[in-house]
Design brief:
Length: about 350
């Protein structure tokens, strides 16, 4: 198999922060019953051939006909074992993307899955499903909020089969609520065309862009606050300042929009007001959630992104800014719609996402 086209597609979207941040997004290629799919946690921007996992398509699609436990932990444990068993000989040390089953069910050679903020303005909007129908008609399948991995593939194949029966064509594009989009085709060129169509339509529909223009800020105060943390990155600009104005302005960011935001920023920031006891607030957050915050926002100033390394803190900063973009874009689609708490708790405790975060961490 000539992997050049797959690598070119992976790098093109992985290098563009409008489409992919950190270890998010995945790609695949199929030929003669074998699928090459991105390894979990590997960055698309720098993917090499060795970071793709070769898998048996028939074994992956066969999982959709199997009965699994309804309880989350048991189902995910069994589904993971079956997914890993679908690796070809010699691939046993590699971990495929959790969405490998979803990739396998498309009868097309190439698949691209990304989480652009512009797209998620719609998928995380209260009017997202109706807007999807208005903008794309039957060219795009809408997938209701669904847990990622095996359950998502199961829901998708049912929706795709229904669309196939209705239109006579197996779908090539799906928008997934509070998740992102997936595009499939037999050529990379068609992938590019369909991505451009989606992005252009959404861009023409949004009512305003996030304003990340620089502003004046109290550097001495930020430096003093930074001394309270370990490794951290401070961020402020016009859009950040608008969100940290007060508790009401912060409301859209006090629950996550997508699994990526949970993985890299945790599910809720710590919001601190002037006069608050920062060490006490930090300790209370840790006791409540069982871990330290990744984002600490200060009313009227900006926010700190925290991490075990500068790279981890910077990744958290980028994903929190991404959440701001989603919140702004969602205004054009009925207002913001965050993930419900039960879904959030599933992601926080899901082994597959814990693995992805561990591999992606420097």
């Amino acid at each position: 198999m000539n992997i050049k086209k797959l690598l070119e597609m992976s790098h093109r979207y992985g290098e563009d922060p409008a489409y992919v941040l950190a270890g998010g997004g995945n790609t695949s290629y199929k030929q003669d019953g074998v699928m090459w799919v991105k390894g979990s946690g590997a960055p698309l921007a720098t993917m090499g051939e060795a970071q793709f996992v070769r898998m048996d398509v028939a074994k992956l699609t066969g999982m959709l006909a199997k009965g699994y436990p309804t309880e989350d932990a048991a189902r995910e444990r069994e589904a993971l074992a079956d997914m890993l068993a679908a690796r070809l000989p010699g691939e046993e040390k590699k971990r495929p993307s959790v969405e490998a089953i979803l990739h396998a069910l498309f009868p097309y050679r190439y698949v691209l899955h990304t989480h652009p903020a512009l797209v998620n303005g719609l998928t995380c909007g209260r009017d997202g499903e109706c807007a999807c129908k208005r903008l794309f008609d039957d060219r795009v399948v809408w997938i209701q909020l669904t847990k990622p991995g095996y359950i998502l593939a199961k829901v998708c194949i049912e929706a795709f089969d229904a669309a196939h029966r209705a239109t006579g064509v197996f779908p090539k594009v799906a928008l997934m609520q509070n998740h992102g989009l997936i595009v499939a085709a037999d050529s990379v060129e068609e992938i590019h065309d369909r991505m451009a169509e989606i992005m252009d339509a959404l861009q023409a529909h949004v009512t305003r862009e996030p304003d990340f223009s620089p502003i004046q800020w109290d550097k001495d105060k930020a430096s003093a606050l930074a001394s309270e943390f370990g490794v951290s990155v401070f961020c402020t600009n016009a859009q950040v300042r608008a969100f940290v104005k007060d508790a009401d302005a912060m409301a859209p960011l006090m629950a996550p929009f997508t699994p990526d935001h949970i993985v890299y920023c945790k599910h809720v920031p710590l919001f601190v007001k002037p006069g608050d006891d920062l060490p006490a607030a930090f300790d209370a957050y840790r006791k409540k959630h069982g871990f330290a915050p990744k984002i600490v926002a200060f009313e009227g100033l900006g926010f700190f992104a925290l991490g075990k390394s500068e790279q981890e803190a910077e990744t958290a900063r980028l994903l929190f800014l991404d959440a701001m973009k989603v919140a702004v874009y969602a205004q054009a689609f009925g207002g913001y719609l965050p993930l419900p708490d039960d879904f959030t708790q599933f992601i926080l405790n899901w082994e597959a996402e814990s693995y992805r975060q561990k591999v992606a961490a420097p």
